[in-house]
Amino acid sequence: xxxxxxxxxxxxxxxxxxxxxxxxxxxxxxxxxxxxxxxxxxxxxxxxxxxxxxxxxxxxxxxxxxxxxxxxxxxxxxxxxxxxxxxxxxxxxxxxxxxxxxxxxxxxxxxxxxxxxxxxxxxxxxxxxxxxxxxxxxxxxxxxxxxxxxxxxxxxxxxxxxxxxxxxxxxxxxxx
Length: 176
Description:
Elements lengths: L4 E6 L5 H10 L3 E3 L2 H12 L9 H19 L6 E4 L2 H12 L4 H7 L5 E5 L16 H17 L3 E4 L5 H12 L1
Parallel strand pairs: 1-3, 1-4, 2-3, 4-5
């Protein structure tokens, strides 16, 4: 387990990427969401591993990318904040296909025991070309993740709906 690896997860459109950027600006290492990077790649190349087209292929690519991200950051000396990551991807694959991948991957590749979840925040939720699902799908994903993390031995901390700076302070305070 790497206590330095911190996961930001939760509701899609809840402000994770914005919080990640604030943590980056404070000097912390960050890893952008695998799903966003995969969607960008697939759209640019005409690929089909998109969550709205082939969710299983998308989730498998996200698992591979999350593992590569962890490997790339293994020697980084400070905190590393991940926008989603391995557990989110494995959980999505297992929920979609029934393929039992979550427990084994989660046991072998641990993060810090504290996981920060962005709650549903309809007032800031917005779709875009890379986020084509609606708020209902985001809520279902959130409900799944808020159960998955504690079931794997993580303490899920719900982020308050406050300014980005206050959220960054909240996260760092919990980690100190």
